[in-house]
Recover the amino acids of this structure.
């Protein structure tokens, strides 16, 4: 009888969590990264940050709320002078964080794992003290009920964020900067 | 007899569980949801369009710390020094950028003049030891060498004395290769400044040709180092 009662109680609370609960996920920093890609006439540069912090909340309504932030200083392009130049141009002292807040609806947990879902989300990208709202494609791979990998890739305009584009040999880098993110989320 | 109180307890738990407002959980974003309760966590029956407009706005703070400081340990946001304010760093950055623009210009000019110095120096060597001994390349070579040396010294000064706004750790990268190559080039310039006049002053001596050859080789090494440092940085 005690076993039955315990089982009933467990199922009861589990069912309640399913019915009106929300899911909170956090970025697993050591398995996540954000990369920027810039193009110069002479070469292409990738800068990687592994100091990604983020949270995701999936509301009972199916709306997902995402907040990701990365310290500007943490991007590494494998050239300290170039990284220093990047910090100057994006005024890292004044605007130390790149932040992305996004929402998307229709987020449903699959019944089988792994499972992949592709969604468009509305994202507010705050960079260099300026925020712009854009649509970004997000691919979500549900590895397990408590582990998700989300990836996205989208371009932004440096001019739109009033970043004085850095130059090498008096040639400026391209205006378009692509941002890639690969985030491992766990409960 | 035993089952009745048990069922009563279950009934009470059922009632309590269903009566606790779901909002209480929704207001606690940091709460950890047990894994068993999360498959599936979303009420799939509800269409996404039924979401409240407020849910889809950006007016939420998932970090809930009200600050811009990452909570994770080890994420040090400090820049050069906590005492330096952003305005001061911006001023230093602008000054640094201007100086480094000049550094690039001077560097490019130095490379071109040094290339010309090496070519004319080679012609001078051939003229002196294998040619007609007209000595017509000696003065242009000296002039070019002097300009190249002054440009290089000025360029090195710009690089060394440019203020630094943000920390630059030393590590094995293209910037370090650039610095090492330019260090070799600087040693080459110093050698040439000594070896050039010394070779010229040894006119008539038997070892002048050897010194001249050493001067030529050092010139090539200096140019190669500078070109290597340039290419390492650009590509």
């Amino acid at each position: 009888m005690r076993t039955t009662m315990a089982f009933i109680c467990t199922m009861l609370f589990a069912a309640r969590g399913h019915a009106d609960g929300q899911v909170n996920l956090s970025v697993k920093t050591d398995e996540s990264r954000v990369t920027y890609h810039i193009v110069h006439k002479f070469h292409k540069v990738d800068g990687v940050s592994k100091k990604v912090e983020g949270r995701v909340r999936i509301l009972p309504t199916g709306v997902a709320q995402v907040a990701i932030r990365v310290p500007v200083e943490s991007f590494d392009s494998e050239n300290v002078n170039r990284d220093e130049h990047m910090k100057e141009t994006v005024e890292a002292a004044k605007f130390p964080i790149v932040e992305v807040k996004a929402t998307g609806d229709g987020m449903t947990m699959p019944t089988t794992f792994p499972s992949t879902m592709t969604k468009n989300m509305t994202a507010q990208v705050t960079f260099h003290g300026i925020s712009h709202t854009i649509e970004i494609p997000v691919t979500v791979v549900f590895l397990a009920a408590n582990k998700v990998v989300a990836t996205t890739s989208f371009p932004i305009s440096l001019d739109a964020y009033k970043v004085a584009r850095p130059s090498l040999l008096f040639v400026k880098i391209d205006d378009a900067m692509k941002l890639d993110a690969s985030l491992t989320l766990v409960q | 007899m035993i089952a009745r109180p048990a069922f009563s307890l279950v009934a009470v738990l059922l009632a309590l569980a269903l009566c606790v407002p779901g909002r209480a959980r929704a207001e606690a974003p940091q709460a950890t949801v047990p894994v068993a309760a999360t498959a599936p966590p979303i009420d799939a029956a509800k269409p996404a369009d039924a979401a409240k407009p407020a849910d889809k706005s950006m007016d939420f703070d998932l970090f809930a710390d009200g600050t811009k400081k990452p909570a994770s340990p080890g994420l040090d946001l400090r820049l050069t020094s906590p005492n330096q304010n952003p305005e001061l760093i911006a001023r230093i950055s602008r000054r640094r950028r201007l100086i480094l623009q000049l550094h690039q210009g001077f560097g490019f000019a130095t490379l071109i003049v040094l290339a010309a110095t090496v070519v004319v120096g080679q012609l001078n060597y051939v003229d002196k030891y294998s040619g007609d001994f007209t000595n017509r390349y000696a003065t242009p070579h000296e002039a070019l060498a002097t300009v190249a040396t002054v440009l290089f010294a000025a360029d090195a000064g710009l690089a060394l004395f440019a203020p630094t706004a943000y920390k630059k750790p030393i590590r094995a990268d293209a910037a370090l290769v650039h610095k090492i190559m330019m260090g070799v080039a600087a040693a080459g310039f110093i050698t040439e400044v000594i070896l050039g006049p010394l070779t010229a002053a040894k006119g008539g001596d038997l070892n002048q040709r050897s010194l001249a050859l050493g001067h030529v080789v050092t010139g090539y090494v200096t140019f190669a180092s500078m070109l290597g440092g340039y290419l390492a940085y650009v590509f």
